[in-house]
Amino acid sequence: LISAVWVRFNAWKRAADIPAEELEKVFIFTPDGTPSWYTANLRASYRFTPQIALNAAVENVFDRFYQPYSSGIPAPGRNLVVALKAEF
Predict the structure, then answer these.
(1) Which CA distances in Å does 34 have to 2, 19, 23, 66?
(2) Which of 8, 46, 49, 72 has a Cα-to-Cα distance from 21 of 20 to 30 A?
(3) pLDDT of residue 30
(4) Backbone φ/ψ region at 70: left (φ over 0), alpha (ψ -120 to 50), beta
(5) pLDDT 10s digits, 46-80
(6) Among 39, 54, 45, CA closest to 6
């Protein structure tokens, strides 16, 4: 069994550090800038045989709302990813 835990973090970006023309995009930035955010993620893999493995991950475990900097598009909520890998 192989497993991993990781966190993605984006720090607060103050309005003073954002170009003025970008701050006009009110759908992306607040008057104070961009809030910080984080996601916690888990991944595990189990190898049944040398050729067959099952991989599973839970991304954004706490279902946090966030937008990557300057994207204007909210990121997905909690995700479950399952994959079966077979090597021939």
Answers:
(1) 36, 12, 10, 10
(2) 8
(3) 75
(4) left
(5) 999 999 999 999 999 999 988 877 777 888 899 99
(6) 39
Query: Quick count: other Cβ atoms within 10 Å of Cβ 46?
Result: 12
Lookup result for tokens 């706490």 = 62
Burial of 62 (0-12, 13-18, 19+ CB in 10 A): exposed
Task: Tell me the pTM.
Answer: 0.75
Question: Does 42 have pLDDT greater than 80?
Answer: yes
Q: How confident is the model at residue 81 (pLDDT cuts 50, 70, 90)?
A: very high
Closest CA to 85 of 48, 59, 57, 60: 48
Cα 18–Cα 16–Cα 9 angle in degrees, nearest 5: 60
- H/E element holding 21? helix 20-23
